[in-house]
Amino acid sequence: MSNIKLFESKKVRTHWDEVNEKWYFSIVDIIGILTDQPTTNRARNYWKVLKSRLLKEGNESVTNCNQLKMQSADGKFYKTDVGDVEQIFRLVQSIPSPKAEPFKQWLAKVGYERMQEIQDPEMSLDRARENWQKLGRSEKWIQQRMTGQETRNKLTDYWKESGVEKSDEFAFLTNIIHQEWTGLTVKKHKDLKGLKSQNLRDHMSEAELIFTALAELSTRQIAETEKAKGVQENAIAGKTG
Questions:
Q1: Residue 84 bridge partners (DSSP)
Q2: Domain that holds residue 216
Q3: Using one digit for the tens of pLDDT, what is the confidence trace for 95-129?
Q4: Same domain, 146 and 94
Q5: Do 97 and 34 contact (CB within 8 A), yes or no?
Q6: What are phi and psi of 58, to 5 degrees?
Q7: Considering its fold, how many domains does the chain have in total?
Q8: H helices present in 135-198, as ranges
Q9: What is the Cα–Cα distance from 88 to 107, expressed in whole angstroms?
Q10: What does the angle CA 212 – CA 215 – CA 221 come to, to the nearest 5 degrees?
Q11: Checking DSSP bridges between strand 2-7 and strand 66-71, what pairing results, if any?
């Protein structure tokens, strides 16, 4: 589950590994924040130099990081160095920054909140509602957004059960449904709204949310009726839906 977290209004790309119940954070994003880099490229260069230095020092606990595909500012997905909470704590200690302590507290808070949400999923919904209210969304819009998310979750649950596993396969099927009712790919729809890494659904109108939910509801019902398996059969159900 990929997501965006905010530290002092700056974005940190994250991924929640449901199997191992572990957060992963984009190292470049964190370095950009801690060192006040003006661009992602500058943050990436800083990490390259720091990583080389840490390797020479034998600091494998930080440099043995994983790579995950994360969405960049251009909307495309690229392999990105990520670290779990323990690795990021060690990384923060290697960077002289006045933001180090506040960032450690933020990191601990993110982990704690996720544990709370696993035990009580309703807390995740409450936090989402609070964020949408801060963005000035009406109660009607928020209700529609939450209803649409529930519909979406039921569809993706079916896809998982029917053999769809990879994130790019989920994106492929989602794009088919979206293009059928909007006439636009997800990327072109985001471009039309001037969005980059933001969640498209968080910037839809009430009507767009309703049509998206209807399309995904009908897709799931068709897929279940026809017992669709795998990407290709689910793609046909998506087009029909």
A1: 24
A2: 138-240
A3: 888 877 887 777 766 654 544 444 444 455 666 77
A4: no
A5: yes
A6: 80, 20
A7: 2
A8: 139-161, 167-182, 186-192
A9: 9
A10: 140
A11: unpaired
